[in-house]
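Continuing the batch. This is chain 6 of the set; chains 1 through 5 are on the previous pages. Same settings as before, nothing changed between runs. Recording input and output for traceability.
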Amino acid sequence: MRIRIVAILMFLASAGAYASDTWSSSVIHQNLQREFKLFVPSSYKNSPLPLVVVLHGGGGNYNQIQRHTGFSKLAEKQGFFVAYPQGYGNGWNDGREDIQSKSHDLNIDDVGFIMKMLSAIKSKYRINQSRIYVCGISNGGFMSMRLACEVPAAFAAAGIVCATLNPYLTHARPDTKISILIMNGTEDPLVPYAGGYVKVFRKTRGRVLGTDDTIKYWLSWNNCGGEPFIAKINPDTTDNTEIEKYSYDCSGAEVILYKVIGGGHTWPGGSQYLPEAIVGRVSRDINATEVLWGFFKGKSRR
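Output for chain 6:
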């Protein structure tokens, strides 16, 4: 009987070693302690798994974006890591001329922080280094765009929600292709779909290009040619939104736009985190988290 009990306890201990977990850690960068969290799926058994870096919006934090997107739940089902870094002062220095941002005022090197975080994660866990992805919403989307422009070799693909390209980044012209997915609402009251100044409660937060010009930039970057394949998506006819998906084949990379017609400054499929009068509508036609992972999982850095 004792042998049997010991065997059961050993089995449970072994099984527990592979239970899903969240590793909270930090790195020192620019003499600042920068925090991050890593979700580890229960399927991890020391074999390399993909990694998705998820960036919160301005004024948010890594706990909120983890709950809001549901990325950890999907990662547990699909078997990949998710990193949630914390922005300095709850924001990212994404390159916009945003005088309201503490990270911009102090010239925080968030690109360097993200790269140092990746090194720390790789030192502890086995990451499939050809399958590292980044995505984010709003300020986190702008920061994802900056990472894609400045360190494209670090990521196989990037996903941008409620954000476009800021003029500062158009100087970047590296020769590394990177797949890009952009998901923007045409009635976003904070980040104008057609471009202009980002506005938060009547305060301007930097000038940005329009979504169409942002797509043109990435088409040029990835040497894309030809007309896009266009698909209409509208399974939920009660949410006052519909989606047009534009897919461009770029020979080695993809550029995809989800034009959320009637959508606001929101995560499609997510919660109405603020009143519609402030952030606009949430589209129920897609689940942004599932769409992003579906886009990411087929991409690999050569």
